[in-house]
Amino acid sequence: GGSSGIGAATALELARCGARVILATRNARRGEAAASRIRRETGNNEVLFMHLDLASLRSVRAFASTFLRQEPHLHLLINNAGVSAGGTTEDGFSLPFQVNHLGHFLLTQLLLERLRSCAPSRVVIVASSAHCAGRLRPESLGRPPSGLFSTFQDYCDSKLANVLHARELATREQGTQVTCYAVHPGFVNTSLFRHAPLWLKPLLLPLAWLLFLDASEGAQAVLDCATQDGLEPLSGRYFTDGGPRVPWPAG
């Protein structure tokens, strides 16, 4: 999710710090353009595009295989891509739940051994305060919920899954020097709501322009979790731009 929004702003700052950055994005044209722009702005030529479509578990596996073959080092995985609404994926899951959680979950599992071998390393999961309204039902996990506000519920469910993923991954990786953080970047004016229902867009778009942060401001909390020294004892915690916070009860 590095071709636009918070992901692109995060990648830009990491490149400025001298990191080798892989932009894993779905759209090749936008991904190549973003990588080229970041190389030009930073003078860092170690910024590359690789194709990854989180709406396809087959694509996630192909990306991981290519990455592991080509890249010997992985110190930081930022699970940033997100959508707010959509239909059903080729794997039979709702688009938001698969893109926001399941695809990232599988990607993390496939790259986990490389993260361990390169430790100390970090996984940063871009979550949201919307996890407050999340409800995870094991018997129908990943299936579109029903009801009038099903689109919003679907998004909230995926964000709750993000928070719980960070907590559980941190627990399982104790002693490996792989740490994990869930972060709410704030309310940011990005293309996240491009898939929102048409009736909702007239309500969302003016709010986004008037009240929301820009992408570079939203990226700051993500960058803090990615680069700040001394966060290891806080692995598994939920962060906002003000630092670690107690998540909503469901999280």
Describe this structure in words.
This protein has a 5-stranded mixed sheet, sandwiched between helices. It has a two-stranded parallel ribbon with strand order 1-2. The protein has helices at about 5-15, 30-40, 55-70, 95-115, 150-170, 200-210, 215-225; strands at about 20-25, 45-50, 75-80, 120-125, 180-185, 240, 245. By secondary structure, the protein is an alpha/beta fold. The chain is globular and about 50 Å long. It has a single domain, classed as NAD(P)-binding Rossmann-like Domain (Rossmann fold, 3-Layer(aba) Sandwich). It is about 45% helix and about 15% strand. Helix 3 packs parallel to helix 4 and helix 4 (about 95-115) packs parallel to helix 5. It contains 7 helices and 7 strands; from the N terminus they run αβαβαβαβαβααββ.
Features:
single chain, 251 residues, alpha/beta, Rossmann fold, five-stranded mixed beta sheet, two-stranded parallel ribbon, 7 helices, 7 strands, 44% helix, globular
